[in-house]
Amino acid sequence: MSRISNEEVKHVAHLARLAVTEDEAEEMRKELDAIITFAEQLNELDTTGVKPTSHVLDMVNVLREDKAEKGLPVEEVMKNAPDHKDGLIRVPAIMD
After folding, report:
1. Is 79 helix (H, G, I), strand (E, B) or coil?
2. What is the pLDDT of residue 57?
């Protein structure tokens, strides 16, 4: 017995703004049913004593320390700016 109907597949497709044919809905129903079956098999595992985790590897903070550093001199930055005036980079107006 299928755990999901073609109507439910079409409803989810509609929510995702996807147009599906009857054949596509049937194919998706079969695929989703297989995914649900697999998820149910995972629910059968005994996970007592297993700590919840957000990542499979034991990672702490892998990013560098956030510290302020001196930036480029204004003259260096302005060398790369196609249009600048008084130490500011000029860009085309986008609003009147």
Report:
1. helix
2. 79
